[in-house]
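[Automated response] Your request has been received and processed.

Submitted sequence:
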Amino acid sequence: MATPVPPVLRRHFPGLTDYETSVSAMRDFTASRGPETPDQLWLLQHPPVYTLGLNTNPAHLLSAGSIPVVQTDRGGQVTYHGPGQLLVYLLLDLPRAGLGIRQVVCALENSVVALAASHGITASARREAPGVYVDGAKLASIGLRVRRGCTYHGLALNVALDLAPFAGINPCGYPGMAVTSLALLGVPVELEQAGTELAVLLLSTLGLPVGARSQFGIERLQPLGSAGIRPAAGVFLARHRAARRGSPQQRRQGKASGLRVREQPRIEERNAGESACASITRRAG
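Generated structure:
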C-alpha cells in the first residue's frame, strides 16, 4: 500500500537567514527524514551572498567585492542572493508524491509564471536557459539537489532587491544577462505576500495538500536582523579561498580571476541535463 502524502508544512522565516546555516539544515532534514515525514516548503531571504553551483566556471564570478562567496551543492552556475529576494526551498519526497524531477522543476517555473500573470505581468520559461524571464530579463532562478529521492534547494524570485550585485557575475553563467524584479516591473507586492501567493500556486500545481503555515523555523535557522548581516561560518571572500576543483582550464581561469573557493565532495551521480527546465544535481544514497 502506498504511503499517503501528508499536508506540506509551510515555514516562513522572518528577517534574514544565514545561507550556509539554511543549506546545512536542509541537508540534515533530508538525511534524517523517514517515509512518513511531512514535506516542507521554506520561504525566506538571505543576507548578501554569491553562491556557486556545482557546474560553476570560476570565470563567471567577475568581481565579488565585499560580498561573501559560498560554494554550494545545488546544480547550476553562479547567482546572487540578498535582502528583498524570496527563496523558496522545496523539501519533497518525490517517490511518495508520485512526481518526477522534471515535473517539479517545471512546476517551480510555472508557479512563478502564474504569480506574475496574477499581477498583470507576462513571464515565461526558456528551454535553453533555465529560469523565468520577462522580456528577456531574468526574474527567477532555479537550482535543485536530489538525494535519497528527496529534493532540497529550489528557486529564487527577485521581489524588491538591489539588483546592482548581479553586475559582479554572469548570472547563471550567461554573460550580459539582464535581471529584473517584481518591483522594477511595477508590482507593489511585499515579500511575505509574494511568498504566500507563490506557495499556494506551487503546491496546487504539484497537486500536493497544503498544510499549516508556521511563522517559526527549525531551531537551527536563526534569522538575522537587517543590522546584523554577517558572513556564515566557513564563508570567505572570493580573493581569499583555494580554487574550486575543475578542469585545468577552469583552474587557470580561477587563478586569473582571483576566485578561490572551498572544494566540495565528489558527487556519486550527477544528471544535470536530466531536465529541460533547470539545472539539477542528483546523489544516490
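Summary generated for your ticket: The chain has five helices and 14 strands. The mean pLDDT is 80.
If you did not submit this request, please reply to this message.
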